[in-house]
Prior knowledge:
Blueprint lengths: L16 E5 L3 E5 L8 E6 L3 E8 L2 E6 L5 E5 L3 E2 L7 E3 L3 E5 L8 E6 L3 E2 L1 E6 L2 E4 L3 E4 L3 E3 L7 H6 L11 E2 L2 E2 L1 H10 L9 H7 L2 E2 L14 E4 L2 E7 L2 E6 L4 E6 H12 L4 E4 L9 H4 L2
Amino acid sequence: MLDFNDKRLARPAGPGAGFQIIAPVAPVRETPDAGGRQVTQALFGEMVEIYKREGAFGLGQLRRDRYVGWLRLGDLAAPSWPSTHKVCALSTFGFSKADLKSPPLKALCFGARVAATGRRDGVWAECERAGWVHERHLAQLDRFETDPAGAAERFMEAPYLWGGRQHAGIDCTGLTQQAFEACGVMLPRDSEMQAAWAGEEISGWQAPGALRRGDLVFWEGHVGILTAPDTLLHANAFHMCVAREPLAEAIARIQDVAGEVTAVRRVSLAPGREPEWLAAQ
């Protein structure tokens, strides 16, 4: 039975200190070493509370989804800016000047948080620690998309990476989490948490007309999102990338590895309330 004392979500003991991610992508690991298994990633501009230090690593809890793990201290800095925008392109660069021919300072991923300084030069916006970013690759923090399946489709053919959350490597729950966060809904990080706490279960999902675009289909340890009632998009280790395939074919193939479908859930995009799984902690 899942609960909020799960070590992946429970706040570490002792006082914490706030830090901000300054690396384009910061791996979050199970253990305090570079060879530790990656469990998720934090993106540029995200906030983390660090509770314990061990060598070059700190044990922290991410503020966005409360996931706990070890981060390299070199990927962090004391908070120095409040985020004003998020990256809405799959990936982009922050340049050293307001000039696309200038050297890039940062590679930024979909969902990264930046702080615009207020300085503008044509289509370029200067961002703290990130450089000059094209305005069409930025969105206000309160601007949300309306189609999670469409957000997920932008990651088509991104390589599979355990714990990944971005175009250069992503896993099944990283994909669904990124897709729904772009639409203003934060899902838990791991598949059994999503299956237990995300949206409402669809009973009788096998019936004709029961499924629709954006529904989540779960197996033991795996999840995908429907782009049509009969089509599944998922980051998976069979294709080793984000791939689209007929739902019936996916069910037949995955059955040999992870068994039958365990749940199908539908997540409301209704604004204005914190997800119950976050509010309950």
